[in-house]
Amino acid sequence: MDTLVSTQWLEDHLGDEDLVVLDCFVRTEQTETGMRNISGRADYDREHIPTAGFADLKGDLCDRDSDIEFAVPEPEAFCAAMAALGVGDDTRVVLYDSSMSAWAARVWWMLCWVGFDRAAILDGGLKLWKAEGRTLTTEPARHPNRQLTCNPRARLMANREEVTAAIADPDVKLIDTLPAASYRGEMEIYDRPGHIPSAVNICGIDMLDEDGRYLPRDKLEAMYPGDRHARQITYCGGGILASSNAFVMTRLGFTDVAVYTASLQEWAADPANPMTTES
Question: Can you tell me the distance from the alpha carbon of 41 to that of 24, in angstroms, rounded to the nearest whole number?
């Protein structure tokens, strides 16, 4: 199984006994004070792809005791939560959402982080599945609890200390995956405007076409020039969109990619961490 599968591929394989499908959606809502993220459980309950379970990035798949939204849980806790969803050492997993595949990419990246390499993202997600008139259901998933071995790969996650060191390190590339207006400081989403010094801007949204599918490989390769073996660190606001960039970079052959999962939630909140609006 490729790490990116089509809607037709998934429909053809929904009956495979070793295949676990997971809806990873998180709903973002506008409030009087800004934006808030809530679990997509209600959306899942209303309709989802047949056989799909629900992977809750606002629940068991995050550290809910952390001040950082979507904080990464301990690897063992993450493995236990995925095992409860039916993910095991001998299963394959297809992940999807209905918002640019970024939520699915976050779960994909976390699976890679704990040493699991049998996961894929549904290209176009639920939006394309529905647009093509494919079957939906309200039936909950029925997967047995399985055993998922935990073999963490620490280099797939970057922390604030590594990012700080990377600013002055020409051998490490920082990639801001937020929209260009945020990168330039024209849009203030987090505590301070702008981006981390030395970072380049490759917006994760720009990697998708109008149907929500990833662009053809040649167009994606043009977005990511440079050494495929150099250290690369992606970030955004909470490590979600940055995971989509990391997913694409891995597919393009980059071998040393990390996601700064706390991203600007953590970085911009501390005045000691430098920010700039200069390119």
Answer: 9
